[in-house]
Amino acid sequence: MNNKIKEFQKKLVKLKLPLALVFSTKLKDPAFFYFSKINPEYALMLISPNFSPKLYCSSLDFEELKVHSRIKPFLQFKKNTLEQIKKLTKTHKIKKMGVNFSYLTVNELKNLKKLFKCKFVDISGELLNLRAIKTNDEIKLYQKASKLTEQIWSRTLAQIKLKKLKTELQVKEFIEQQIKRINSAPSFPTIVASGKNAAIPHHVTNNAKLNGFCIIDFGIRYKGYCTDVTRTIFIGKPTNKEEKFYNLVYETKECAANKINCGEKTANIVKTARKHLGKYDKFFTHGLGHGIGLEIHELPNLKENSKEKFENGMIFTIEPGIYFKNKFGIRIEDDYLFERNKLIQLTKAPKKLVVV
Amino acid sequence: MNNKIKEFQKKLVKLKLPLALVFSTKLKDPAFFYFSKINPEYALMLISPNFSPKLYCSSLDFEELKVHSRIKPFLQFKKNTLEQIKKLTKTHKIKKMGVNFSYLTVNELKNLKKLFKCKFVDISGELLNLRAIKTNDEIKLYQKASKLTEQIWSRTLAQIKLKKLKTELQVKEFIEQQIKRINSAPSFPTIVASGKNAAIPHHVTNNAKLNGFCIIDFGIRYKGYCTDVTRTIFIGKPTNKEEKFYNLVYETKECAANKINCGEKTANIVKTARKHLGKYDKFFTHGLGHGIGLEIHELPNLKENSKEKFENGMIFTIEPGIYFKNKFGIRIEDDYLFERNKLIQLTKAPKKLVVV
What we know:
Radius of gyration of chain A: 23 Å
CATH class of the largest domain in chain A: Alpha Beta
CATH topology of the largest domain in chain A: Creatine Amidinohydrolase
Number of strands of chain A: 20
Helix content of chain A: 25-40%
Oligomer: homodimer
Number of helices of chain A: 10
Largest sheet of chain A: 4 strands, mixed
Order of helices and strands of chain A: HEHEEHEHEHEHHHEEEEEEHHEEEEEEEE
CATH superfamily of the largest domain in chain A: Creatinase/methionine aminopeptidase superfamily
Distance between the termini of chain A: 51 Å
Low-confidence stretches of chain A: none
Number of domains of chain A: 2
Mean pLDDT of chain A: 94
Strand content of chain A: 15-25%
Structural class of chain A: alpha+beta
C-alpha cells in the first residue's frame, strides 16, 4: 500500500477521525488520484485507521479501471452500496467523518448529511499538506518531467530562430503539438504574449507577430503531474535598458532562490524578491511562485501573506515578472525542488537574454 | 440586457431574494458564461431585481475580457471590492442572498458566510431550469452545431470506408482533428469502442482494430454549447441476428421520440423505450438521454426516476443502447429540439445499419 495512505491514516488517528471519504465527482479531488492512481468519473474511497482502504467505482468505469487501481478491494458501486457503507459505519460506531470541503460542493455535502447521520469534518488542509511533500517516486517523476519540458522549449526556440514560427499562435500550437507527441498534455493553456501583449500577465494568445519581448509560459502534465516554466526572449534588437530589465528579473529569481533555507518562511522570500526589484516592485503584479504537483497551484504558496515554510520534498516555481502597461513585459519562471536541505533547480532559464 | 437575466430577476422577486451572487471559481459555474458570455478565471457577478447587474473580474483577466462581456459595468476586482459590496448590501438592507450550491465548494460558502453576515439560499435549481429552456439564439446556434457535428461524422465515415482509419485511436484522433479544424473542441473525450470493447459503455479508446459493431460517441463544443451523438457501424459482415439488434435499438429511439408531447413526463418516455426493448431491457444499462447545453448533461433528465416534463425550448439526446458483455454493444444517439409542441430531430442516425 501507498506510504502516503499510511501517513494519512496516522493523521486520521491524530484528528480522532475514524473514517475519511474521498470522492471523485464533478470536482475531481486530486487526492483521489493521489491515493489510487486512477481517475474515474464517479467514485468513492474509504480510508480508515481501523481497516484497509476500500474503493467503489461506477459500473461504467469498473471494467476499465480495476487493473490500474492501487487500492484493492476495487468494488463496483451498486444500488445497495451506500446501505452497506452505512452498516459499516454502524459496526465501527463511526459518528464523525472527514471529507474534503474544498472539493465537495455544498449540495454534495447536504446529500451526504441526509444519508449518514453523522458529523462531517474538513480534511482539505491535511490532504494539501500531505501532497506538498513529494515522495521519492514523485521526485524522480519530476526530474524526468522537467527534462521533457526543457526539451520542448529547446525545440521551440530552434523553430523560432529558423523563423518557422512567426506569430504567438504558431508558437503555442507548436509547443502543444510537441507536448502531445510525448503523450503528455499541457498543464494549462500555453501563454504566448509578444510586444505590448507581454504586459498582460494572462494574455490570450492571438495572431500577433512575434516582436520585442516575448513571454512564453507553458508546462506539461506528465503522468498526472504539472510542470510550469516561463521563458522571455527578444525578437529584434533590444536596447541596453531592455537588457537591463531582463537581467533585473533574472537576478530577482536568483536572489529569491538563494535565500531559501529549511524552515524559512515562504513570505520572507517574497519580501527578498520585492526588495531586489527596488522601485520596479510596483510593476510586479502577481505572486512569486507556487507549489506544483497534481494541480498547477499547490502548497507552498510564495505570496506575501503565505504562512508556509520551506520543507524537504517541496517542489515549486519561482516566477518574478515586471509589466509596463502598453509597453512590454518580462517573466522568468523555473521549477525547483527543495531536498536534503538544499535547493535543486529542475529547469534552467538562460541568464543572458536570448535575442532572435 | 440578456432576456434570461430579466427572467432570472423576476425569479428572484418570487423567491424574495434581493441579491444573487454568481461565481466563476475553481468550479466554473456555467451560469456565469450563460449570463455574461465570458469565461474568466476568477470573477463574481451580482444580480438583483433592484439594480442592474454588476460584474467583477480579476485584474489578470480584466484587459482581455472587458470587450466580450455582455454585462456592463465590467469592473476590476480590487482590494476594497468586497468592502464595497458589503456596503451595497447594507444600503439595500440585504439579509438573504442566493448562491449556486452546486457550483460552490463547502469552503467557498464558509468564506462567504464569514464575510457577509447574512443567510445564503441555494439557487441551483432555478439556474438549471432557466438554462433548460433554450432561447431563439441558442436554438439557432444548435441548428448550426448539429450540422457541423453531422459533417464531421460524414467525413469520418468516408475515411473508415476508404480503410484509412483502421483502429479505435485513429478514428478518435481523426474526429478530434476535424473538430479542431472548425475551431471547436470535443464536448467530451471521444469514445470509439469496437468488437468486445463496444460492450463497455465508457470504454477508453485504444489501439484495437475496428471489427464488428463499432460504437462512436462524440460531440463538439460550439460557442460554448455541447452536441452529443453516437453512431454504431459494422465492420465486416453482420449476421441477420446482429442486424436485428441494430434495428431494435434504432426503433427504440424512434419509438421513444414518437411518444414525446408537451407536458409529458420524461420518465414515461424511458418506460416506453424499456418496454420496446422487451426481454433485452436488462442489457440497457444507462439513462435514455439528457438535456444538452453549456454542459454535456443538463435538464431534462431522461431517467426512470426523473421528475421533469417536456417543454418547448428543450434540447436533449435520446440514446438507447444494448450491451452484451464480452460480445458486443450497440448505442444510437441523436440530439432533439422540442419546439412549438413538436419534436425536431437535430441529428439523424441512419435507419439501416451501415456496414463497411
